[in-house]
Specification:
The protein has about 230 residues and is mainly alpha-helical. Among the domains are: about 50 residues, no CATH class; about 110 residues, no CATH class. About 50% of the residues lie in helices and about 5% in strands. The protein has eleven helices and two strands. The protein has a two-stranded antiparallel sheet with strand order 1-2. Helix 3 packs antiparallel against helix 5 and helix 8 packs across helix 10. The longest helix is centred in the C-terminal third of the chain and has 21 residues.
Length: about 230
């Protein structure tokens, strides 16, 4: 989100929406502005601490922590690192957040089923490593109780039995190397892509990994292509 933010509410609202970041730098907060000419003056650096305080207060509130939990659950549902038991709590948590019901949100934050997810570290600058670590919560586990399995393992029993053990070992080895790029390459190779493809066959609401973007000019002349 960017543009038009003001102190005293807007920043907290952005936190509660679960966005990754907001852009602040104009006259609303961080610059003096001449109301007659519109000319902007120097940065008001003393407001930076106020921005941080408002952000942190929202993030550390019941609603803020509930939003963080929902964002993590959504991410884990996409990557297949969530169990069915955990996934069943996503929609009720969303409804509690939508109605800003802090009493209900607190119940999710205290739910023992979600305790391990709340305790997981942030990805930081290594999102693929984060995904791998979440999948490795189940390293070496192939349980007949499907509610205890990550959803990534729920599609094809033979695939899981034949490849899950080796897959978990590969992830563990790459994580020990502490090399995000190598994990990124492995993410785009077998068997990880095969696991994801099988997982998504029955989940049409999930976006596909392999997307193609076409950049087009909406009001280009009919012979635009011939010009290039």
């Amino acid at each position: 989100m960017s543009a038009g933010f003001k102190l005293g509410g807007h920043i907290g609202d952005a936190v509660y929406s679960g966005v990754d970041g907001i852009g602040i730098g104009g006259a609303q907060i961080l610059r003096y502005m001449d109301g007659k000419t519109g000319h902007q003056g120097p940065y008001t650096e003393e407001f930076i601490d106020k921005i941080d305080e408002e952000r942190d207060a929202a993030a550390n509130s019941v609603r803020g922590r509930g939003v963080l939990l929902l964002c993590r659950l959504d991410r884990m549902q996409f990557e297949g690192s969530i169990t069915q038991e955990e996934d069943d709590l996503r929609e009720p948590l969303y409804q509690a957040l939508r109605s800003a019901n802090e009493a209900e949100i607190s119940l999710f934050l205290e739910n023992p089923v979600l305790a391990n997810i709340i305790a997981l570290p942030d990805d930081g600058e290594k999102p693929v490593t984060g995904t791998a670590l979440r999948l490795l919560r189940f390293a070496g586990v192939y349980d007949s109780d499907t509610s205890k399995q990550p959803l990534l393992l729920s599609s094809d029993g033979d695939l899981v039995k034949n490849k899950w053990g080796r897959f978990a070992k590969d992830l563990t080895s790459l994580i020990k190397q502490n090399y995000e790029d190598a994990l990124g390459q492995y993410y785009d190779s077998q068997p990880w892509t095969l696991f994801r493809e099988e997982y998504r066959k029955n989940k049409p609401e999930l976006r596909q990994d392999r997307l193609y973007t076409i950049k087009a000019t909406p009001h280009a002349p009919k012979d635009y292509a011939s010009l290039h």
